[in-house]
Backbone:
């Protein structure tokens, strides 16, 4: 037995994870030619939460991932992710964010990991004419979500470390914040296994045929049978289903940077500063937490990539762009060193709405993905929704349907 650098416990040839589970009984492992009620392919945030909800509902579940929950190649890896309620007038996502925050906090509370959600608040910085933020304000008011509308003088007084530039007002969500990304995905996967789910670290081959899928085959030759399959494998969806999703899911390269704050300067820590979003500049950030650095990332889509072969080294061009922004908006960090960087990917749908629908030719296969850079926070609600649709066989929400996913990107969800 050995423990990997991210805390998974592996037994020879099995690929078993679970730091919490390793303290007691080992989790069930998917054996060769195993049969299940539901096989969930992909142990990112959507897949892990789906497996968790299904197992707790009494289904016999297999959770399968090629690289492991929260791995560095997946869209659910990395240090941190924002959880916010603001979504313009896209009310369903605000409702799902609120529901998900409660489920995140409950699960982390049960596992003793409450610090893996940081209630730092989220600040939406806006210009005078800003339709997205104005619609966000209206939605938060309508749904009675706690928030503040702050004018420029209030912003300057509360967070003088920000050079507001053209910013004239903002919304502050005091109950929102950020999650410790790969850590919380691992926590969900561990809880699914603690409830009885089996796990396999295996690469699934593209399914074939029509009607109903009876089993998936892995690259190592293992066969995993199930009554229902949930394909929640993010940027790998186009590779598993090239005919259906090859031109409808767009994995894109995204770069994230961590700036070292000045020695002894507490102004950029999560205790003193919120998560911030500046959509006019397509940039957002997360305050320094436990000395990991002040996170700054671009929220614009990069070039299309392959998640298996992407070289995860930041580009000089993006570094220069982000440095210029940081020097303007956070002057005290003008000469701050970059102490870390991640190159990850979004897996976008044509407009940013999630994909949650049945495969058009395989009636017992669900396609679950399209996180589109904003999906991480919604993992609990997505998993709950998928588990319910498998149980009740009701039609899916129209905006999540495969038929609405186009071949040209025209982003409408931010």
Residues:
């Amino acid at each position: 037995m050995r423990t990997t650098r991210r805390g998974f416990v592996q037994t020879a040839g099995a690929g078993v994870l679970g730091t919490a589970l390793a303290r007691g009984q080992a989790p069930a492992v998917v054996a060769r030619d195993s049969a299940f009620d539901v096989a969930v392919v992909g142990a990112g945030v959507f897949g892990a939460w789906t497996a968790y909800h299904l197992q707790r509902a009494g289904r016999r579940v297999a959770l399968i991932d090629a690289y492991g929950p929260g791995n560095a190649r997946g869209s659910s890896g990395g240090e941190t992710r924002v959880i916010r309620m603001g979504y313009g007038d896209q009310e369903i996502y605000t409702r799902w964010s609120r529901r998900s925050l409660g489920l995140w906090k409950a699960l982390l509370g049960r596992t003793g990991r409450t610090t893996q959600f940081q209630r730092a608040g989220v600040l939406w910085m806006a210009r005078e004419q800003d339709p997205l933020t104005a619609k966000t304000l209206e939605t938060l008011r309508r749904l009675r979500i706690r928030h503040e509308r702050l004018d420029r003088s209030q912003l300057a007084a509360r967070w003088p470390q920000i050079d507001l530039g053209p910013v004239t007002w903002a919304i502050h969500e005091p109950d929102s914040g950020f999650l410790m990304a790969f850590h919380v995905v691992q926590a969900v996967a561990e809880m699914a296994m603690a409830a009885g789910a089996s796990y396999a670290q295996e690469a699934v081959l593209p399914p074939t045929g029509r009607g109903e899928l009876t089993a998936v085959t892995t690259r190592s030759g293992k066969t995993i049978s199930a009554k229902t399959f949930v394909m929640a494998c993010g940027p790998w969806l186009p590779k598993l289903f090239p005919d259906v999703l090859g031109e409808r899911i767009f994995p894109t390269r995204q770069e994230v940077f961590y700036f070292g704050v000045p020695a002894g300067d507490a102004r950029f820590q999560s205790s003193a500063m919120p998560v911030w979003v500046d959509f006019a500049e397509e940039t957002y950030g997360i305050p320094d937490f436990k000395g990991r650095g002040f996170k700054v990332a671009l929220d614009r889509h990069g070039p299309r990539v392959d998640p298996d072969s992407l070289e995860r080294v930041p580009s000089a061009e993006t570094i220069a762009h982000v440095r210029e922004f940081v020097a303007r908006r956070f002057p005290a960090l003008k000469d701050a060193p970059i102490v870390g960087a991640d190159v990850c990917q979004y897996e976008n749908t044509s407009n940013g709405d999630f994909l949650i629908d049945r495969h058009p030719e395989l009636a017992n296969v669900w396609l679950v993905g399209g996180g589109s850079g904003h999906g991480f926070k919604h993992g609990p609600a997505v998993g709950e929704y998928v588990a319910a649709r498998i149980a009740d066989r009701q039609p899916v929400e129209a905006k999540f349907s495969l038929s609405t996913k186009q071949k040209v990107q025209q982003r409408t969800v931010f």
User: Anything to note?
Assistant: Residues 91-110 form the longest helix (20 residues). DSSP finds ten helices and 20 strands in the chain. The CA atoms of residues 2 and 138 lie 52 Å apart.
